[in-house]
Amino acid sequence: MHFDQKNFLADVERVLHAEYACDIKSAGKYELYNAVSRAVMEEVFEDWNREKTSERRRCGYFSAEFLMGRAIYSNLLNLGILDGVNAALSSVGEDLKQFEEVEDAALGNGGLGRLAACYLESAASKNIALDGYGIRYRYGLFRQTFVDGYQHEEGDDWLRWGDPWSVRIERDAVLVKFADQTVKAVPYDMPIFGYKNGVVNTLRLWQSEPVQAFDFASFNEMKGEVKATENFNATKITDVLYPNDNTMVGKILRLRQQYFMVSASLQDIVRKFKATGKSLKELPEKWCFQLNDTHPVIAIPELLRILQTEGLTFDEAFEVCAACFNFTNHTIMAEALEKWDALALSDLLPGVYEQILNCQRKLEADGLDPNVFYIVRDNVIHMANLAIFVSSHVNGVAEIHTNILKTQTFRNWYERFPEKFVNITNGITPRRWLLLNNPELARVIDGKIGTGWHTELSELKKLTPYLSEILSDFKRIKHENKEKLAAYIRTHEGVEVSPDFIFDVQVKRLHEYKRQMLNALSVLYFYFGIKDGSITDFPPTAFLFGAKAAPGYYMAKAIIKFINEIANLVNNDPDVHDKMKVVFMQNYNVSYAEKIVCAADISEQISMAGMEASGTGNMKFMLNGTVTLGTMDGANVEICEEAGRENNYIFGATVEEVAAVKKFYCPREQVEGDPRLKRALETLIDGTFPDEAGMLKKLYESMVGGYEPDRYLVLYDFADYVRVKEQLLRDYGSEEYFMKCLVNLANVGKFSADRSVTDYAKLIWHLA
Ligand SMILES: *Cc1c(COP(=O)(O)O)cnc(C)c1O
To answer: What is the distance between the alpha carbons of residues 176 and 180, in angstroms, rounded to a whole number?
Structure first.
């Protein structure tokens, strides 16, 4: 993008005059942020419109979540004007840094939503015609604070700073019909800028609104009670993101959201396709769709329905859908696989339900054994099965995960339709996750191998001969990043952490399967070891946690309370103050992640083997030169393949061992065999920590009592975890340790989202 400092400032002034009746001198942060953003938006119309009106075949990425994070820096970077804008602002006594207060667009929960965001950015950067379709939630993922160690949630008013990077497209509004109401869906389009290539794709987010303006007169007279309620409900559909990660909630409002977004998207796409004059049978020549997990799978019966109202037979419509749809599975956990009550769904969406039944009938007519293959059974609709039956491709998100899908979760489907199943290992965009968050390190790399790696991450391999040469720069930059993070933690968490400590980091959603408990128990284990003198040479370490718990997930909230109590104990004990610190960082989100992953010395990826489909946090740390302390799970397996198992710290039961152990597992034996583990675990019940609410007691029971104690083998893996963790803490700081970090950095290429979207484009979307 052509950039002229003077013209740019004049554009900013003009927006300030028109929109805020002020100038650069008198503008506040809010006005300046909006004016800078709008001034850029004015320049991108041509490139954006070229893509919007282009005739080429496209893929629609349907996702209930897009965890975009802060747009302004990423957009300026990709447009190649980050330094230019910064210089322009500096010339008038302003800077870009002040916009760090702008809200993150947190329209997603965690990995799945962040993946969608990375894929949109990478597709634009690789000139792949991928557009996102989702929901413009009024409130994104809640803001988290801790009060007395307990998680508190506040609404996320992400529009507080305005939304200058979106454009409302009233002319593309459509109506979405439910059995009990009809609402208007209005799209807001967000440009997705490719990295310095002039490509602009679109993220289209739908907002629900009443069909007519609310009729206050009739409401006051209480005449139109039914209609008034209808109008109130209309905006509710897109009010708030459900804060659950990896769990299905059977709420009808959630089903309304899902149908709302896919119906609006498909109506819009079909309407525009029809305008070209072609038969809808040819829709697959222009469009394909990627279903990001089961949340948008209701798109399948909806497109079947729409195509039949347009005159196609069921068989013709089915053929179109089979050619258009593809399905990504993100988890094997039973509690996350979506199932809907058939009666509830047929009440809300009778026309859609009819198509689901048609799919079940077709399945039987095709000769599939209904005891093995089913979409509707015992009045329950199995969304994953529907997706597999109709889609042309089904993909897992890491090799190990796809293998589990083929051999366990969907074994019968795989044996009947082997050609459908493919693996596409997840990836992350190296622009946001290295160029933007760690510019100093990026400059050092540029200096050695040039800038080709910005868009071809496997070129980082060229660093291999230079690793010793960049070692001292790497150490210096890591230390500077740790200083910055420590300063941020001081301000935001009120805890003093020395940048000379080892930064041992676990940041991700709070989930029992992710095993923050394993980490927490090891901290107590070390603490008591230092206290009783059995550990004498402990390297000073800061144990840093960040995680939101779903508000209704009791055990996850108990784990947060536990870790906060551990932090309170450790940080206030003068005996260990030069040895350890524990911090639970509040409100972990994309912007916090950017500060954390470049400042970490240890990346904790310690899920029970078989549970983490891929993980992408692991990739962010690796890209910033951090060793993984992890299990053989998800993409950790491929990280070891790429960078060498000997350059990471692997422990714990493998998938095969997990299956074998579970048959005879007795967690109490594990505890009895290890007095220091016992001491750590019993802090949950021995009065070490206040527990008026009985939360910690319940947490204790989940580990050693009840129907399936220690479901995720925390206690089973504990000894091996501590053994490997102690080795890592001993190795830290040595030449070999830092070389391991750099070998990881040099071999991270596979985990670029550029590679992932290129694989999708070749193997699934067939986009040139
Ligand atoms: C990357 C990311 C995640 C996913 O982390 P995992 O460790 O893969 O679970 C979740 N939340 C945020 C804010 C992220 O940036």
So the answer is: 11
